[in-house]
Structure of Peptidase A1 domain-containing protein:
Amino acid sequence: MVLAQSTPEAADDVAAPVVSGNGEFLMELAVGTPPVSYSAIVDTGSDLIWTQCDPCTNCYKQPTPIFDPSKSSTFAKLPCSSTLCSALPQSSCGSDGCDYLYTYGDYSSTQGVMATETFTFGGNKVKVPKVGFGCGEDNEGDGFTQGGGLVGLGRGPLSLVSQLKQPKFSYCLTSIDDAAGATSTLSMGSLAGPTGNSSATTGLIQNSAQSSFYYISLEGISVGGTGLSIPASTFALQSDGSGGMIIDSGTTITYLERSAFDEVKKAFKAAIDLPVDNSGSTGLDLCFDLPSGGGSGDIKVPTLVFHFKGADLELPAENYMIADSSVGLVCLAMGSSSGMSIFGNIQQQNFMVLYDLAKESLSFTPTQCAKS
């Protein structure tokens, strides 16, 4: 991508610490000169990089100080003629530059002015100048409050991956069962990866109708060693751009096309010898009552394998069964969708996930991410 007025210098290899939040994962970075540290949701399902900015018209309470661009010597607003302004799904030309509105699938949104800044990445203190980002002055969404913004890692020109021109990146998401504060790393360039003999590798698919997403080819699912009767076409990307499955670090649980999820749900009900909880109290589709006085460790759960094209990915039980002894329930961390399916972040825990955009491949390598 050639970017007028604001091109990051030579693409440095970047590493940033990643910590687990409540259903999200956040990377630690800093913006401006002098650098102001904040944490941002890691999202492969969108493109825009943004942080909350003063003066705010509608900002939520964030854990770190809100960025004040007037105190940075490297802040510059993007002109309406810039390539990044043109790449926005919704923008307008304000009195002093490019105004944006960016919305997400859960109806959350950020609105403000597009600018460039120097970003500092905490893992190896690499400074990257002139990164295009959204200076958010009106930000709405319950999921945002764990950090000060979001870093889009999608395929589109606005994303960090595209702006740094990095052909490879990887992350390793710690388990929700790990101790609070457990960190792992998001890496770009030569630092990304590695893969090994235990890696499961499948191809990435591009969809011109949804060009930001990373599509993967899911061909089937097995529960307890038995393949489910799900037609292969269920997860196929359709000629009109609908359907298919994407991998998304910013979505918590996996969502499967409804008919496929019904088969998975039926198989888990048959395999787990516990009463089904019908209260709906957790918001998840399938939960079971834990035995009174018993822990979740004693429960026999069936194996779960996702059969991607060229790669059979067997998940650890903690990547799909979530127990909460305080309410006496254990639940399947999956749900149903209509149309597009999503491979969420709980299912990606304790795998090194490597995106190789030169090879158009995605690799999963079992890894204790808190120790990596």
About this structure: The CA atoms of residues 255 and 335 lie 5 Å apart. Residues 258-271 form the longest helix (14 residues). The first strand starts at residue 15 and ends at 20. The helical segments are 83-87, 160-163, 258-271.
